[in-house]
């Protein structure tokens, strides 16, 4: 390795009920090294264990969001590569996070990071950004979970367009096909992310987290109806539902505690 990229691991920041995971390798377009995957898993575990958290923002430094997984990392750091879970396992774990997630896309999204961002519950991008999935151009057959996610979230025709042609799409087209949930000017990005994070933080956590799980299962055609019904009963019997109804009657913002 000509440069020790392990010195720039993804960080976890917690402020109130909001967590932020940030990629710091901006000089390499925030590519994800094999050793980063284990660190990100640790961050996910810490987030799920913290019952006070209500939202996670996935962000990155520099002009690009991420170039995705560094395939050359296997050859450059075989020890870290041997220890690390797969990139696909990391993305699947991201999808299973308990709390809602927002991806802050301040620039280009490439390769595996296109699936990482797509896995977030919300993606806020900026005018002038772009994305493309170069698997077909590189001779890479993408992993099954990513293919399923593209089809379930963007539709079969858009998934074929992106995977089979490696076409580069601009911000407006990404919004049109549903890859972006919101498009803003670059200077308005943090305000938009903060506003959405505050909205999600104010929601009833039992209901929001339970419905997130159910919606993701429905998207993959694998809804656990029994578990979904059990979560619905839990919400019906919760103090939060009583608070929500009371606040509605009293015309005031509710204060939820997650019980």
Automatic annotation (TrEMBL):
Q: Which domain of life is it from?
A: Bacteria
What molecular functions are annotated in GO for this chain?
Answer: catalytic activity
- List the InterPro entries hit by this protein, alphabetically: ClpP/crotonase-like_dom_sf, Enoyl-CoA_hydra/iso, Enoyl-CoA_hydra_C, Enoyl-CoA_Hydratase/Isomerase
Q: Which PANTHER family match?
A: ENOYL-COA HYDRATASE, POLYKETIDE BIOSYNTHESIS ENOYL-COA HYDRATASE PKSH-RELATED
Family stated for the protein in its record: Belongs to the enoyl-CoA hydratase/isomerase family.
Name this protein carries in UniProt: 3-hydroxybutyryl-CoA dehydratase
Annotated organism of origin: Neoroseomonas lacus
Lineage of origin: Bacteria, Pseudomonadati, Pseudomonadota, Alphaproteobacteria, Acetobacterales
């Amino acid at each position: 390795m000509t440069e020790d990229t392990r010195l720039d691991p993804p960080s976890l920041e917690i402020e109130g009920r909001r967590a932020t995971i940030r990629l710091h390798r901006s000089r390499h377009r925030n590519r994800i090294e094999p050793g980063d995957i284990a660190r990100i898993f640790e961050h996910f575990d810490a987030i799920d264990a913290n019952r006070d958290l209500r939202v996670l923002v996935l962000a990155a430094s520099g002009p690009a969001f991420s170039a995705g997984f560094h395939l050359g990392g296997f050859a450059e750091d075989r020890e870290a590569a041997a220890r690390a879970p797969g990139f696909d396992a990391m993305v699947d774990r991201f999808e299973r996070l308990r709390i809602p997630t927002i991806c802050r896309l301040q620039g280009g999204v490439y390769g595996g990071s296109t699936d990482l961002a797509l896995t977030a519950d919300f993606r806020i991008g900026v005018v002038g950004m772009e994305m493309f999935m170069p698997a077909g151009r590189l001779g890479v057959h993408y992993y099954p979970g990513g293919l399923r996610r593209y089809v379930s979230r963007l539709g079969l025709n858009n998934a074929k367009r992106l995977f089979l042609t490696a076409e580069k799409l601009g911000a407006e087209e990404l919004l049109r096909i549903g890859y972006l949930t919101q498009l803003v000017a670059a200077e308005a990005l943090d305000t938009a992310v903060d506003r959405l994070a505050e909205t999600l933080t104010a929601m009833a956590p039992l209901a929001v987290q339970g419905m997130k799980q159910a919606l993701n299962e429905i998207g993959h055609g694998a809804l656990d109806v029994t578990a979904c019904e059990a979560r619905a009963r839990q919400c019906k019997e919760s103090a939060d539902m009583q608070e929500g109804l009371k606040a509605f009657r009293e015309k005031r913002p509710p204060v939820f505690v997650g019980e």
